[in-house]
Amino acid sequence: MTTPSPLLQVRDLHVAVGERSVLCGVSCDVPPGSLAVLMGANGSGKSTLGMALAGHPRYRVTGGQALLADQDLLALPAHERARAGLFVSFQAPPDVPGVKNNLFIRTALNAVHEARGQPPLDAFDFLASAKQAAGTLGLPETLLARPVNEGFSGGERKRNELLQLALLQPRLALLDEIDSGLDVDGVRAVVGLVQRLRAQGTAFIVVSHYLTLIEQLQPDTVLRLDQGRIAETGGLELARTIARDGFARPATVAEAQP
């Protein structure tokens, strides 16, 4: 059986925040439609990887390479990375006062449509699809007309991230503790949406500490990040071992690491 070419290729990525080096040579491949779970102790650099790939200005790439569908991701400004098909969720989604949720998402969606050569959605068509997706995800329709995340509960913020994911349908999504703050129904919504998008070819990197979610997601790969590097690569059994024994054990560089 032929292994598909990686959608995302990260090679020897080094990232600094201020004067501190956080990632010290991360390498990984993520094929189309696959799902990798990224685990690591607090402060190991999991969120840093997502923010660096997204182009957040606080996260300075000091070495290495990241390719998305053979395109140099690091050479693009943040908005062009999103247009190229990258989606990164926030661990703690911020408020965007004064910007209505429906306008924010429709503007982002139409920018992606333009990059793909697709026609824009008018307000009526967008609202119909947004309401349908919101209902599936358990997000009240009334929040579509509110400013982005303003007054939202923690679970509503995460469901709003899922709504953006469902409508944008990116090529690659990095979900940073998307289950944090969600109830049981919210976790089911995460699993269902990820399964639907994977079937359409979307690849995922999911940051999570929770074995229950990881087992439901059925990842292709589990990566353990330690001291700024991928210390272990394995399958679901690695996640179970970490859940049982914790992170406090010697790091061994994975043989499968590129």
UniProtKB/TrEMBL annotation:
Gene3D superfamilies: P-loop containing nucleotide triphosphate hydrolases. Keywords: ATP-binding, Cell membrane, Membrane, Nucleotide-binding. This is Fe-S cluster assembly ATP-binding protein. Coiled coil: none annotated. Belongs to the ABC transporter superfamily. Ycf16 family. NCBIfam families: sufC. Residues 8-252 form the ABC transporter domain. The keyword Cell membrane applies. SUPFAM superfamilies: P-loop containing nucleoside triphosphate hydrolases. InterPro entries: AAA+_ATPase, ABC_transporter-like_ATP-bd, ABC_transporter-like_CS, FeS-cluster_ATPase_SufC, P-loop_NTPase. The keyword Membrane applies. GO terms for molecular function: ATP binding; ATP hydrolysis activity. It comes from Paenacidovorax caeni. It comes from the Bacteria.
